[in-house]
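Final paragraph of the annual report: two paired records, presented back to back.
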Amino acid sequence: MIGSVLDKYEVLQKLGEGGMATVYRGRHLTLGREVAIKVLHPHLSATERNRQRFAREARAIEHMDHENILKIFDYSGSEADDCYIVTEYVDGLTLQEIISDRGRLPSEVATLVGIKLAEALSYAHGMNIIHRDLKPENVMLRRDGTIKLMDFGIAHFLDEMHLTLTGALVGSPAYMSPEQAMERPLDQRSDLFSLGTLLFHLVTGQLPFTGTNPSIILRNIIDGNRPHVMELVPDISGGFADTIERLLQTDTDDRQVRAGDALEELLPVLSDVGIDSSDERWGLQRWMMGPDAYEKQLSEHLLGELMLLGRARLEAHNHLEALRLFNRLLSMDEDNEEVLTLIQGMHSLQPEEPADSKPWWLVALTVPLAAGLLTWALWPAPPPEIVAPILPSVVDVVEPPVEPEQPVEPEPPVEEPSLRPDAPLEQPEPLAIVRPQVNVIPNPRVSVTESPPVDDTPGRVTVLVPGAWGYIYIDDKRRGRTGQVGAIELLAGTHTLRVENDYSLPHIQEITVVSGESQTVTISDLKRKPATIQLPGLDGSCTVSLDGDALGTAAGLGHRFQLSEPDREHTVELKCPEGDAQTHTLKGIQPGSMVPLGQR
């Protein structure tokens, strides 16, 4: 079909193919405008009835005009031999491609995506149009940072047509709502469930509902069998996690009613940490231009903002919310001494609101978490000398004298601990038996066996990277940047040193530190990060060669390959069944970058 003309559109290049249609890049013959042409497979548009239905669907959605919804320019009409629609051409990546490359996104970046999708859904639902097939393959991130939701409304047409032809469900099972899986009538809340699935996938890198075959996946969706998002990513924003959990409720009545409700929940996720969704510094375009640098800046910003928020919640005696913020901080910086000190100063957990006013999943996750954090933080270490009167009452170490003439009252029965989330946290009973070095004697003072003196004089380590630079991490704690930080004091023993930068692979080695001694560690073999070369829109049957060596077909490579030496010049050759061979010269590729072929 490449080179042919459909009505007034010239077909230039095949971009991709799915189970329902083939997509081509085209050009309007008179306007010169680049477009995308989606041609339905012949067996789906073979009958007059299906062509009429397609025309009705196209007319229903062609008037949608929203920045985040793919614009439809034209459609074939019911008389055409080929059934197709013409849309705007989007230069960018699908969310599926981004997930495949990045693994998962920070919750604030995923929130930016969620905000734009919620706006698009709210607009469409206001026109009584439901998407029915919301998934990462149907969402594109344009290079200027604009989100584009594709195939809006066409899913309805495909759904009816495919059911007529095969009697089977159409769409991606993993993204279906429970009511869709059970073939019940759908409303806008079905799209909201799919939105929750997509956001879960973005922020965790995995699907909430899985299985070895579609039937098991659908059963898990219907039954609600999935992990909680915070179990998989403890560094997620608490508000973002709450929104995802509500979107993924099995019962439609437990979800948000409208996409606008989800939008109202997502906006504070950013504003609460001092991020304006309209600020270009935090926009998706900035992330697209350099995701690693963006995420590093975001992490540094969040560490400061979360500390301020946590302190404010603590001062307001809202210990539950303070603990959620401190828990996120510790998941990002586990050795943050300021956070650990604040937690140690919290002697009880007293939620400001009753448990039944919070969603059940929030109570279920937060209370054990809070209890675990406080138990760990408040666990007292044995001092060298303990005076009995100041010991905590729960630790029954010293035996008090009993007056002979005073009868001993029987001990009251032990009450079971309260399981109510709003009950004050009590010190656990096992505290009385975990100190074998304490001698229990009927004496007002307790002797402790003294340990021999230990030389705790630190050693000093200087890290050098000749001709380059790197961030220094020791035992996973960042200590600074080479050239900017001098000798680092470390306790005697073995430590793990990691040095990395934005363009190099991490260098990891064990170092042994001797008390009072100085040493220099020189790293001269930092290896460049490979660059990823993408092949967007290339026919899957095209073969790819790099510097004369065959790599395989585009489909077999997943439409991407890596350059292990991005700094030097490379030659890429593409051979397709249709069309002449293409040769591309790659040079000046930034290490660690993701570059579509033909662009820099």
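The closing record of the year follows.
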Amino acid sequence: MHQFRTHTCASLTIKDVGKIARLSGWINRKRDHGNLLFIDLRDQFGITQCVIDTSSDIFKIIDDARPETVMCVTGKVLQRSSETINNKLSTGEIEVNIESVEVLSPADLLPIQVYGKNDYPEDLRLKYRYLDLRRDSMRENIILRSKVISSIRQRMIDAGFMEFQTPILTASSPEGARDFLVPSRLNPGKFYALPQAPQIFKQLVMVSGFDKYFQIAPCFRDEDGRADRSPGEFYQLDLEMAFVEQEDVFNAVEPVIGGVFSEFSKDFKIDKNKWPRIPYAEAMLNYGTDKPDLRNPLLIRDVTDSFSGSSFSLFSKNIDNGSIVRAIPAPNSSELPRSFFDKLNDWVREEGLGGLGYIIFDKDSNAKGPIAKHLDKDRLEKIKINLNLSPGDSVFFVCEKKQIAEKFSGMVRDKVCNELGLLESKTFRFCWVIDYPMFEQDVVTGHIDFSHNPFSMPQGGLEALNSLDPLTILAHQYDIVCNGIELCSGAIRNHRRDIMIKAFEIAGYDEKTIKDRFGGLFEAFRYGAPPHGGAAPGIDRIVMLLAGTPNIREVTLFPMNNQAQDLMMQAPNDVSDKHLKELALKLDIKDIK
């Protein structure tokens, strides 16, 4: 007989009654029934109920063992009586009568309980993560993550992609976040950087003549954590393809991501059609965000014309000074109490907006509210047509400068949807957001810089860079959004030195800067680079959505907290003076706040 187990704690069934079985696992819980003591023995696979009589010579060993003690038990498999069958367990028809026991590892008093559904502070859960991971929900999330990654990997291989691993120690590059730097002992005073993404390397893979590349890539960014973003490190499905247009990338990615969601989404509905392609400008107009949640049926509309020159001076004067007016419909809300409208107005003020105007169209289509009396019939009718309003609907208004109006109209759209219970449930709604601006302008300094990835191909190529206003140039750049969560960024890449030089020149970088910071890629483009493009869906966010949790730390094995601290391993920590000397480093932190 095997030293530790003949079966897992999920494998014994009614067919095994009468056999001698050996199980190893953790004591999930104990139940004293007078002359009998029951323990639920747990491993990764499940639970088996084990029983021992108080008269047994080994009873005291089991009685003294605390929850989470690891033990090995051997005994005969017995059939449970009909009234004690537990249909929630795969082993619920049997139990093991303990004949011998070995305590493999005793457990002390637990800082957090494994059995049950107790809530604990996150810092406690992260410090004792190995206990937290024994709990059902966490174990299921991590197993789901493993299965999702395996499925993605197989789908990519089946689609003709080859898996390569790119370097972890590399050069610093401006990807949009701070680098993690690693001092070099062999090159004193110089530093490696951990890759924010394998961006340059995967482009070099294409330059090297490979056609389809992927990897499940670790990425490192020194940025603040939040619910949907881990501080420090995360994983993405990194992929790149040669000789492709934008639609080729879409056609390669959709079956992989859509297939994974179909495989693991249980009873959620997933649209089998091609995902909508939504231009960035359209997304900002209709949804107030470039991460639209398509489960929300409400569409924002621009109604600046309906207020321009009107007697509603609060809006018309702001319009004269460059503001716009965005309108958000609220279907079937005209008969809701006044408190509904007041509550939304109070909410936007708490969020930093001056207020939220509204008009109510009653069941007879009469316009009511403080704004309605300032608009003539034609203006009111134009608003109704623009928003496709029906009798009984209301409409809210945001009047601000464009960037602020977009932000708040998107927030109001979500708030109204939630307040009215309009959000589509149990569904995953995907879309591609496309046609991002290539450049953006700092509103304070006027400086023009890249709005997203500097390695994207501008639409119109070199001619557009030479002849158009930079702020009107769009990039062959795209995101995948699912239920309002950005899952992926990608682009058709620039593969030409002349376009690279001009694009960086517009953003204020000379050719020497390009050579200094991107010398490997810039040099490689001299020797023939194919048109190429790719994407990088985030593994953590995919699993987060499939697990139905809003916090990415719930699907990460050993995450850091929001301050980028590993409470379990006590990292980051101090290093010795000897170690610093080896690296030619000296600490000077007195002025750092």
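DSSP finds 17 helices and 24 strands in the chain. This concludes the annual technical report; the extension proposal builds directly on these records.
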